[in-house]
Automatic annotation (TrEMBL):
It is an enzyme of class 1 (oxidoreductase). Keywords: Disulfide bond, FAD, Flavoprotein, Glycoprotein, Membrane, Oxidoreductase, Signal, Transmembrane, Transmembrane helix. It comes from Phallusia mammillata. This is Sulfhydryl oxidase. Catalyzes the oxidation of sulfhydryl groups in peptide and protein thiols to disulfides with the reduction of oxygen to hydrogen peroxide.
Length: 675
């Protein structure tokens, strides 16, 4: 009984510990994908001690294009797995807290970024960024060119000869034709005749670079000596590429393939008797323990939150602000020129919206202070920026993030989250500018354009967005809701582009034209034509401060290890209680006055739209985020464990006491008997 209760308690306690941990970014790759998964600890160490070249993908698991690119990169890694004696492939997920700093040191501003590194790469070597198309063939060719450029510098410690990627001269081939001594470590030399632009020869050379007993040359028939050699050996230069094999005794064999592709040639050559299979086995350079522990860190605990479809959540807006300033803006080593201007435009728009922008008082104070400080700066170093944004004053600090997200929570790891919260932030800002009755409604479109074009990490998203705003420029003369409707149109155009056509669509949250009919029937006329005035009213109701829910707000402003380095301890409030009180008050006072209004009669109020929302939950509901669905809090469980330990200890003492008394009793009895 005791043992059983002990087990139950331990299991419940363990579940609690696991689920209360902050979720860590789940990556898009695992080691079955023929890639080495790097982190902040091992990337530089590996690059600086590696005998081979490396291709590393820096990515972000939330970035839509990284998600779409992942299957291409996995296929590429598999395709070049047999080239591992010359080049290896690795990946690193930058938003993972372990990796933030290394990505910043490597100046990664765009996701995905592909970088090539030479062998024994110096830690200060920035690598070579791949700038071409992200198709598999284009990248493979770039890999081949990179290997060709660096192969002569590679230290070669393998038994088989180092592959040669350059074009061989006729003299070298003629040498191969003379019978080789039996001490020669290879049985065959193959020669591939091809034209200038062909990559097949180099691909076959690399595919067989880990095979024993075969060495491959390529000959360019567009060169005079290549053409002469082909003629001399009877090669049909009208049907290229062609391959021959020279046996050790000097005899020549033509290689016939069904299709003149890389894989057919590789297959035929590696089936020659005595040729060893290519070694495609993927060996991570890290010990089993390291990769296992890393994978454990990579696990995500999904604590599904009950959310209302018609609500917008302050927790998401806060997460967007924090991520934007601590990750995307902070990714820039020196803020100056266009980027600094873009940042000022974004922060100044937030400040101008004043109390119409849903945010805690502490966030408003923080943004105002940041804005004043920015006005005095021409250039900001990374250190100065971090020092500025991590400082916590009693009533003024950057809001905490909510790692599990709320309205933007995904049904599968890697989807939604940050980009969803960024849209939410800008929609909320556009509605705040209507509510603030700002004469210049271009404030938010300009702020959004400034932020996205300068800082948004998803490169393809940024490029697409820039095209979209060119096609649909903001026009202030379209009425008081011009900014709200402009942003709505842009967002719907992105939704249309991505709907059913993208691996980034969360099946539980399809990218429909927004708002769908069930959320706003009055937004549609017959034939599903928008009634834009009603759409504007719907958006204004949805994204107004009054509709922003406080559920699941995070009150714990915890800093990452990286951020802690910039924290000045003396500026912190003194007691924990004081911090708690200050935060509660900030969140409450920020929303005072909005709670008691009765909006049920508003035609666009969620209840009027048939929603099941019956009221704002208020600050009291925040405890929900600290509890397991089982209903236990961390304190409950800690208390249970203590009580259980005391009870078990007590029971053991009683049992021991009883045993001693019993022994004493029998001893006395026996003694009497002897007497
Ligand atoms: C500027 C920008 C450009 C992007 N470009 C790309 C891209 O090119 N390729 C790519 O893969 N990903 C892109 N993304 C990411 C993509 O748009 C989504 O944000 C991401 O896939 C998450 O989708 P989601 O399902 O959470 O909904 P999101 O599209 O992020 O929407 C968030 C929420 O906003 C509401 N909403 C939806 N549409 C509207 C609307 N028209 N008006 C008002 N509210 C609305 C809904 O409640 C929705 O849940 C971009 C993101 C941004 C911010």
């Amino acid at each position: 009984m005791l043992i059983r209760s002990c087990l139950v308690l331990i299991i419940v306690y363990y579940i609690q510990c696991v689920t209360s941990d902050a979720a860590v970014e789940k990556g898009l790759y695992d080691e079955k994908d023929n890639v080495t998964i790097f982190n902040g600890d091992n990337l530089l160490k590996t690059l600086s001690t590696s005998q081979t070249l490396w291709l590393v993908e820096y990515y972000s698991s939330w970035c839509g294009h990284c998600q779409e690119f992942a299957p291409i990169f996995k296929a590429l890694a598999k395709d070049v797995a047999e080239w591992h004696m010359l080049l290896k492939v690795g990946v690193i997920n930058c938003p993972n807290s372990m990796n933030v700093q290394i990505c910043r040191n490597m100046s990664i501003l765009d996701y995905p970024t592909l970088r090539f590194y030479p062998a024994f790469s110096n830690v200060s070597n920035p690598g070579e960024t791949y700038k071409g198309d992200q198709g598999m063939n284009e990248i493979r060719r770039e890999i081949i060119d990179y290997i060709a450029k660096h192969i002569s510098d590679l230290k070669w410690t393998h038994e088989r000869p180092k592959p040669i990627l350059r074009v061989s001269g006729s003299e070298e081939v003629m040498n191969d034709l003379s019978p080789a001594p039996s001490s020669e470590p290879i049985l065959y030399t193959a020669v591939i005749f091809e034209d200038e632009n062909s990559y097949i020869g180099r691909e076959v050379i690399l595919d067989t670079s880990s095979c024993t007993n075969i060495f491959i040359r390529r000959v360019n028939v567009n060169r005079k000596d290549g053409e002469d050699l082909a003629r001399k050996l009877g090669i049909d230069t009208n049907d290229l590429p062609q391959a021959i094999v020279i046996h050790r005794n000097g005899t020549i064999q033509n290689i016939q393939v069904k299709l003149k592709t890389r894989h057919f040639f590789t297959y035929k050559l590696t089936r020659l008797p005595g040729v060893g299979e290519p070694i495609a086995r993927f060996n991570s350079p890290f010990s089993q323990n390291l990769s296992d522990s890393y994978n454990n860190v990579n696990q995500v605990t999904v604590d599904y939150r009950d959310v209302k479809r018609d609500k917008v959540y302050l927790a998401d807006i806060e997460s967007a602000i924090r991520y934007a300033l601590t990750m995307e803006v902070a990714a820039v080593k020196v803020l100056e020129g266009k980027k600094l201007e873009g940042l000022k435009t974004f922060i100044s728009a937030f400040v101008k919206l004043g109390e119409h922008m849903p945010a805690r008082a502490s966030t408003h104070a923080f943004m105002s202070d940041l804005y004043s400080w920015l006005q005095t700066q021409d250039t900001i170093s990374y250190n100065a920026w971090m020092e500025k944004i991590v400082q916590k004053k009693k009533d003024q600090y950057l809001p905490p993030s909510n790692k599990l997200w709320v309205g933007c929570q995904p049904s599968k790891p890697s989807l939604r989250r940050y980009p969803c919260s960024l849209w939410t932030l800008f929609h909320t800002m556009s509605v705040a500018s209507v509510n603030a009755q700002l004469p210049d409604q271009s404030l938010v479109p300009n702020a959004m354009a400034a932020y996205i074009t300068n800082f948004f990490g998803c490169r393809e998203c940024r490029i697409n967005f820039m095209k979209e705003i060119k096609q649909m420029p903001y026009n202030s003369s379209t009425g008081p809701y011009s900014a709200v409707l402009w942003l709505w149109r842009i967002h719907n155009s992105v939704n249309e582009r991505l709907h059913s056509n993208s691996s980034t669509e969360d099946p539980a949250f399809p990218k429909l034209q927004f708002p769908p009919m069930d959320m706003c029937p009055s937004c549609y006329a017959a034939d599903r034509i928008w009634i834009e005035d009603n759409v504007a009213q719907y958006l204004i109701t949805r994204y107004s401060k009054i509709n922003v829910a406080l559920d699941y707000l995070n009150f714990n402003v915890s800093l990452t290890e990286d951020e802690k380095k910039f924290e000045k301890k003396d500026k912190l409030p003194e007691t924990k209680n004081e911090i708690w009180e200050a935060r509660l008050q900030n969140a409450q006072s920020s929303y005072n006055g909005n709670h008691h209004e009765n909006n049920d009669k508003h035609p666009f109020h969620p209840r009027a739209l048939g929603s099941n929302i019956i009221g704002r939950r208020g600050v009291g509901s925040i405890t929900g985020s600290f509890r397991l669905q089982l209903g236990f809090s961390q304190i409950d469980l800690n208390l249970c464990v203590v009580i259980w330990l005391v009870s078990v200890g007590g029971a053991l003492c009683l049992f021991w006491g009883y045993k001693c008394r019993r022994t004493l009793f029998f001893r006395r009895k026996n003694y009497k008997h002897v007497l």
